[in-house]
Design a protein that fits this description.
Blueprint lengths: L1 H17 L3 H5 L2 E8 L8 H14 L4 E10 L2 E11 L13 E13 L2 E9 L1 H7 L6
């Protein structure tokens, strides 16, 4: 049942994100875990924590809603969305007070009960359009 276990761990990661518990999130990641999609280059756990801290600070009321969880072998794919209000600077954009919805898919690869690699595909262009930085 490792596939079901990996899905359960993934749900725990999202619950910890919604609790603003990044230490709880990172506890589910293997040493040397790699993250793609949180910046222009792959990053490590410290880079992931910095990126997520910036998101949580800029959208302090944000909630991550899981839409679908699909697993096959050592991979878990999650279609999810972030709902929040832009209350602080984010990527150089001053707070706008605008509500946003950011749709995303993340794929996690598990090894020995921990996420070893993550790939994020999030609609950051749509986010910038919602903030009024880029025309729609």
């Amino acid at each position: 049942m490792p596939t079901e276990t990996n899905k359960t761990i993934t749900r725990q990661v999202f619950a910890a994100l919604n609790d603003r518990n990044l230490d709880g999130v990172v506890a589910h990641y293997a040493p040397g875990c790699r993250f793609d999609g949180w910046g222009p280059e792959s990053t490590d756990t410290a880079g992931y924590v910095a990126a997520m801290s910036a998101i949580l600070a800029a959208f302090p009321d944000s909630r991550f809603t899981i839409e679908d969880v699909v697993a096959d072998g050592d991979r878990v794919a999650v279609r999810h969305s972030l709902h929040g209000t832009h209350r602080a600077e984010f990527q150089g954009v001053p707070a706008t007070g605008k509500p946003v919805v950011v749709n995303a898919i993340v794929i996690l690869r598990y090894a020995n009960g921990k996420a070893a690699e993550l790939w994020l595909n999030a609609d950051f262009l749509g986010l910038m359009q919602q903030l009024g930085v880029i025309p729609q």
